[in-house]
Give the backbone structure.
Amino acid sequence: MSPYQPPFVGPSEALRSFLEELEQAAASEATVLMLGESGVGKAQAARLLHERGCRREGPYVSVNLAATAATLIESTLFGHERGAFTDAHRRRQGLFQRADGGTLVLEDVDLLPGDMQGKLLRVLQERRVEPLGAEDSLPVDVRVVSTSSANLEDAMDAGDFRGDLYYRLAVVPLEVPPLRARGDDLESLSEELAQGVSERTGVAARSLSKGACTMLRSHSWPGNVRELENALERVLVLAPKGTGSGGGMPIGPEEFDFLNEACAGIAEDVAGRALRHGLTVEVVTQAMMDGALHEQRGNVSAAARQVGLTRRAFDYRARRSYGSDADAASEVVDP
């Protein structure tokens, strides 16, 4: 039985090589930069690194920088004293202090504002933090693990990311392989994910037929493990009776055909209504973005994923509509 949990199950060489590197990194105290496409499981890999390392008994703290307003990042990471700024009615401990003796994960570190990059570099160099409004700095013992879907070396070349910070964060760079490089993992991974969907939603657990496995391999999965899990959940929940959806029956090609037809039908219906009412593509797109922001309670990264856009594309479209960053049109999410 594999000692690993989804999304890191399967016999592929790509996964085996990655897990070997992760285990080696976990045995050290080195700062790790977890790289990979959106949806591959970078956050899960960061947690696995912590659980397999010598700090596993210490705290595990994670923050999604993409979902944190730029004006709150410094206070979130380093903390603040009472009265340090407007609305600072009480002292707040920062995430570096909360992670003392353990691991702090900085998700989407490529989105860290320029002024904060220098402050983070100083903390990494001195291993001390200075809360906003404090007179003295405080020592911290934290292992920092960062994640990024962007190519930070390109960001360095473009002047968007500090080179000295990059080299501090990427002492050990680990690349989580995309799902298209893990073809041999698809069957076992899908079985595990389907079981998880069954436990979470209450729908009957089912196995994959040979035909379904063939269809899985024929798809490139640009959304990686996240896309695969969502597809399996839709199939399990939406597949009509009479298409092998009984308890214990396999998921076959007919279910995936049903899913494709159902999704196409919904899209055609929405397009038809929009055209009848004279709505433009821009209006429909903005309505979807607004709806996603509302459903995701202001989490911009989650809203972007829901509508199939990158965070940067979502921000760009929001600026065109609102005249400012997407965070200005959303509720602030405090990690």
Observations:
- The chain has 14 helices and nine strands.
